[in-house]
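Q: Second attempt. The first request was missing the SMILES, so the protein and zinc ion are both included now.
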Amino acid sequence: MYAAVGYQGITAQQATNRLTEKLIEKEKPVDLENSLIEAQQEVETKTKKKSTGIGVNVKGVDNLMVRLSKCCNPVPGDEIIGFITKGRGVSVHRDDCPNIKNEDEARLIDVEWEGVNRQRKNYSVDLEISGFDRNGLLNEILQVVNETNTDIVAVTGKSDKNKMAVINLTILIQNVDHLRRIVDRIKHISDVFTVQRTIQ
Ligand SMILES: [Zn+2]
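A: Got both inputs this time. The predicted holo structure:
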């Protein structure tokens, strides 16, 4: 091609044009693909922006960093309230969480659960079960949890000299109804005295 410049009547401009044409031909399909990907990414980003990823919305405010508090572990269906933390966005507590009871009301903000498809499949919940420390008690509790297809994250248990057992369970819960079903079934196990959601 370079040899032809100024020899067979092809001007340098024409040669450049041909080169450019070839480059354009090569780039066209790639460009289209890229713009498709970009468009998809944009759609995804827009969708993500609306959802906080934890299934909770701050009413009337977008793009706030929202997280679930670790103290009271709210699950969908719980009454919830947002607490504006210093520099860390909004932490979501259960309405009756003692940790926010004495906080400045100006720092509380309305939040709400998003639709089911925006919620997570699993929310961590801590339960404390007390009962009479007899043989097989822990096994029966774990069996009941298993029967409800609920994942267990952690189990600890202790008992005192009066044969009073305290078992702490961390389980993954979908919503309040799911939690109620499990708590109900554990309460029906003989020698179980109390089942409570723990708040740290
Ligand atoms: Zn809390």
